[in-house]
Amino acid sequence: MMILAFTFTASLFQSDEEQVRLIFEEARTGEVLLEAEANRGDRLTFSWIHSVEKTPWNETYEIQEDNRLLLKSTSFASYGAGVPHQKGEMKIENGLITYDNIDEHFNSLSWIHSHEAKHEMNLNNEIILSVNDLPHHEAIRLTVEKR
Q1: Residue 9: what pLDDT?
Q2: Distance between CA atoms of 8 and 37, rounded to whole angstroms?
Q3: Domain coverage including residue 71
Q4: Which end of the chain is more exposed for a tag (fewer CB within 10 A), N or C?
């Protein structure tokens, strides 16, 4: 297991009540593969390259008081099946379609990690997960736990 610790100036002033741990685990076995420290209210952006279109996708979440993730925005290059087009406010910037204020809650995030899709995760614009940090073609689940 790898533990990542990031120090942000703002986190120095956070109370223990606001501190959480991001847990990246193998979804089938529950084996913890990676952990990262965060605070409630932090922004977590999950990015990847779409497997068919080969274009970037981004989802930004906010860590909530109840340790759930609130989907705030998503951006992508073109529409396809499963694109959340009925929630939020749409705009087009830098060639990407962006939906803001989606405000959908998730208890966890799950995906099949792919080195080819270049999965990456940023916490407040700092990389906390690079493509090679997790095994290729592994089912991953991300949860938020009180620290």
Answers
A1: 42
A2: 10
A3: 2-146
A4: N
Q: Is 91 strand, coil or helix?
A: strand
64-87: average pLDDT = 85
Compute how many other C-beta atoms are within 10 angstroms of the C-beta atom of residue 8. Answer: 15
- How many other CB atoms are there within 10 angstroms of residue 25's CB atom? 20
d(CA 4, CA 123): 12
- pLDDT tens digits, one per residue of 30-68: 999 999 999 999 999 999 998 777 889 999 999 999 999
The backbone torsions φ and ψ at residue 131, rounded to the nearest 5 degrees and listed phi first, read -50, -40
Tally of structural domains, the chain: 1
Measure Cα distances from 72 to 4, 43, 44, 60, 99 in Å.
Answer: 24, 9, 10, 6, 8
Strand partners, 146: 20
Other Cβ atoms within 10 Å of 83 Cβ, number: 13
Q: CA-CA distance, 122 to 124, in Å (whole number)?
A: 6
Q: What is the DSSP string of 10-53?
A: GGGG--GGGEEEEEEEETTT--EEEEEEEETT-EEEEEEE-TTT
